[in-house]
Specification:
With about 100 residues, this protein is mostly beta strands. Helix content is about 5%, strand content about 55%.
């Protein structure tokens, strides 16, 4: 890891600090609960507007139509084109996520 300083004392590193945000994601076929990681000081909306094909989700729990848990995974990539809606879950525990 390298750290560089400018003349005002501000530092720059190769490490990007991100904060986990619990979220519920409705795709065209499934409901996904998990964590989306966003940069400090940014909003979930900023993460969604990035020009990337996939959205990273950690501690993912995938639910079927009947709300039955189909899969769990420590990491999954959700294709952004398949997202119907997304909602942050603040102050509430997300089921199946520790």
């Amino acid at each position: 890891m390298s750290i560089e300083y400018d003349e005002k004392g501000k530092f720059y590193t190769d490490v990007v600090t991100k904060l986990p945000v619990a979220a519920v994601i409705q795709t065209t076929n499934h409901l996904v609960r998990g964590f989306i990681h966003i940069r400090q000081g940014e909003r979930l909306k900023n993460e969604l507007e990035k020009d990337e094909i996939f959205l990273a989700v950690t501690n993912a729990v995938i639910h079927g139509v009947d709300d039955k848990v189909l899969f769990t995974a420590p990491f999954m990539a959700v294709k952004r084109a398949q997202i119907v809606w997304i909602m942050p879950v603040e102050g509430e525990p997300v089921e199946g996520i520790s």
